[in-house]
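Supplementary material to the annual report.
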Amino acid sequence: MKKTIIITLGGIVFSTLFYTQDLGINAFIYSLFLIIALAISRHQILLKSTIILSALGMLASATAIAVHGSAWSIVGYFLSTLLFIGYVASHQTSIYLSWLNGIYNTVLGVFHSFFYQIEEPEITTPKKAVDVGQLVKVIFVPLVLVVVFTLLYSTANPVFSDFLTAIDLSFIDIFWVFTAALGALIMANIQSPQPIIEITDQDINYPNELAPKKLNDLQLLTVKNEKQIGFISIICLNILLVVVLITEVLFITNMSGSSKASVLSDAVHQGVYASIVSIILAIGVIAFIYRGDLNFIKNNEKLRMLTYSWIALNALLVISIFIKNYAYITDHGLTHKRIGVLVYLLLTIIGLVTTYLKVSYRLNFVYLIRRNMAIGYTVIAIYGLINWSAIITDHNINVQQVDRPYLESLLPQNALVLKDHGLYEEYTKQVYRSGSSRDRYYESKFLNRNWQEFNYIAYKIKQDQHEVAQ
Amino acid sequence: MKLPNKLTASCRLSIQFALASFALGTLILGLYLITANNVFAVLGFGFLVIAVPFNSLILLSVFIQLLTGKLSIKEFFFSSYVLLLNVPIALFYFHIVTTYTRL
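Predicted assembly:
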């Protein structure tokens, strides 16, 4: 009974909030509903830290949608929601498995008992076929009879005909009902989340630490050979990276305030992405060298020291990229891509730190994936909370590096900042905004929103316009 | 996740068909997004024209098997659900293609 009420309510709430509506405060209300509904079916969700954190992430992203509604806040919202559902299914799993459990429950949750044969399978007998046929007859025969006789009576009796005509069913919106059915299906899928048992159990029991093994002479020889190859490879890579860093220092010290935009652009756009790929490859190489027995053989201190120095040199490479990107921002202003490079650099530094921890504490590759994915998600979720378009616009106007076509393309997220600088009315003409009609900012559509689509920026602009009109 | 061992042949067929349609559709979309070649967009629409009636026929056959008692109600729901799941996925892919090509 409780389950039926939650599913029915889920459908009605879903359709009321989302049918023909843009995203706004509706995402936040639906998240609250989801938390309450899942708390009713699973009381323990209020006690587990992973579930609480993912729920907070979901609510924070939903708030960001209602405040500025950037694309990253929407990405953060969907990631957090799937994570929350996945953690309710199994709160101890790795982040990537929680997403998988979240997707599994959202799409196939209602069939979980069917997959795992939790309920006794129904044995199909010919008698059942008669039952279904009988059911169809029970529904269709009276229906046909009622329709035929209604038509006959309405022809024979004008009062009855008028009565039938007076019944107005236009208030029923079939698409609203369809959306509600979809919402009910989603709720039925997630109202009691269950994990994919086999891989979830495997993941929970898989440790982060490497375990030492007893090696025979042949295995020991293989590991020693690997150590030798690793040692020489890392020495070469260290030397190569030192040379690269010297050239980086030369480039940075020769950079002047009047550096040509094209030179900096090349250095940042091509150089940055190639460097980031090289650092990710470096992490991969280290993870491969330290994948197993090499961690436990005697006299590997030199190799470890060389590895640490390579990690440190890679960190210096990140710093050099940061300096170039910073110079580019100082000279030419902020953009989403330039902020994106800073985020990549942050993630790369974190990746290097986790790689250092992996080598230092003899941890396995799964540890690297677990930690780095969790950190990556956290960074995306936090990144989505901030209205970067507003920050970019404010910064570029203040330092007088205005690229009008670019700032026009950031509407409506930067609308309040443009208004503060007295540029909103001018920029909404969008004389420079290129692309198809779907890329354009339509003020009337953005401002005239239903309560479900509440957006703080739209609300403030509308309020200002009312004040000016009065 | 595992499928029950004693699924009827038609239930298995519908699941396999739905998965094959999904995989092929995703492959075509992926190739289109990577190469940006319109040949893959046309191929995608052609695939849709073939896949829709085939999937509909399988859905119909599953329904008939339910009525004739050859399929349990759970198997029917699962088969039809998996087949119908491709509808929103196809719409989503269509949205991606139209957005990407700025149609």
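Chain A has a mean pLDDT of 85.
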